Amino acid sequence: MISLSAEESIGFVYILSQYSNIIYEFLFELYVFYAIFSFGLTRKKYFALRVAAGIAAMLVIGFGAMAAYHYIGETVWGRVLIYFTLFVLSVVHFRMCFDESTWVTLFCCDMAYAAQNLVYKMFLTLWCFLLDIGFGPEVWQYKLIYYTFFAVCAIAVYFILARRTRKYMLRRRQDYRTIVISFVILAITLILCSIEDVTFASLSSDRENLFDNQLYYILRQAGNLFSIMCCIVVLAYLSGVLEKRDLEEELRYVHYNVAQMKQQYEISKDTIEQINIKCHDMRHKVRSLLKSGVTEGGIEDELREAINIYDANIRTGNKTLDVILTEKSLVCEKRGIVLSCMVDGEKLDFVREDDLYCLFGNIIDNAAEAVAALPDTEKRVINLTCKAHGDMVLIEEENYYSGELRFEDGLPQTNKEDKMYHGFGVRSIRMIARNYGGEMTARAENGIYYLRVLLSSAHEQV
């Protein structure tokens, strides 16, 4: 059994007391931001056990880091090695707890480390200022200031950054180049911070970060501010690129939706034309059969009902719109939905065929999906109107709905679980409206959903 002498024991305790705050405060801060940025990620089985076991392992590793800090913590590369090792091991622990891709894991850890370093440097800037003006608090006062400052900053990071980027991060579309660039910036920041800490620790007077020479204080604060700016750049870069990529992806889906609608319109137009031709021919044949007295029993009524589809054609004065509304009315009738239309199609001649199909197709499809789920069959009604006011054309749609309808950025949010591939129909409507110099608005009141689309016939398309 290895035994320590009294002097060695005192030295070991001294090491623990001197460096425990440094190591464990770093890990504490880092894991708080891990929790903030990982909210909503898919957890692995036995998540709580994995978290507890990993934290216990990191605490044990922290003892080794304290010893290493005692021997090499006063050198730049020694300090870089210690913090880099702790960060890498924490990333491994994070990866073991969440069932996500490597790039999603690195993204979250990258954001968390940048936020941790940002808050630390902001506190260090404040602390250097307090020391410079002669404020020398007791240990408990230092702890109170530190934890209060950290709590306020953590809450701010959550509301300003984490909550805003979460919806983009959960779509699981991360660019490895973005993450690599951010890691390089953070690595440079870590090295520069280590150089600062080691250098200015040797230049301090009675206590660390307290300087007799005012020039040292100015240089120290300049270094702190530089580190703060680097961390802000990383956080802004990651969140900005992520949001931009998400918007680009969303735009691609919207354009894809429009293209699919255009293709569907061509198919529907041909189908409706064929139906009209066949029904027209059948009507003449039925009349001939009736005159000749060939039919018997109830076959006459069956034949009349079979060709009633021809009379179901909706005529608005716009051939494209006639095809759309006729097709959608037949679909609605099959689903037990009443589609009520009062549309002046002539006022929409300035709208391209594919845009018109996409616009009305999405409006009716979304409404039909909402009312089809209603248990009260009398509420399965869609009211659609279109009228002109000068150069402006106003399209309005109303329908009942059930459940809770949430809006974000003025758009109703899909209730489907797979949000990544749904909800683009209403975005297509807004995109088309804006392309024709108009706007789309939506609201929900007392169980009724109201949609308004404004188009300008005088606007030159983008």
Could you explain how this protein is built, in words?
The chain has 462 residues and is of the alpha+beta class. Helices cover 67% and strands 10% of the residues. The chain has twelve helices and seven strands. The strands form two sheets. It has a five-stranded mixed sheet with strand order 1-2-3-7-6, covered by helices on one side. The chain has a two-stranded antiparallel ribbon with strand order 4-5. A hairpin with a 2-residue loop joins strand 4 (407-408) and strand 5. Residues 417-422 have low confidence and may be disordered.
How would you sum up the global shape? elongated
How far is it from the N-terminal to the C-terminal residue, by CA?
A: 82 Å
Give the spatial strand order of the biggest sheet: 1-2-3-7-6
Structural class: alpha+beta
Helix content: 55-70%
Order of SSEs, N→C?
Answer: HHHHHHHHHHEHEEEEHEE
| Percentage beta strand | 5-15%
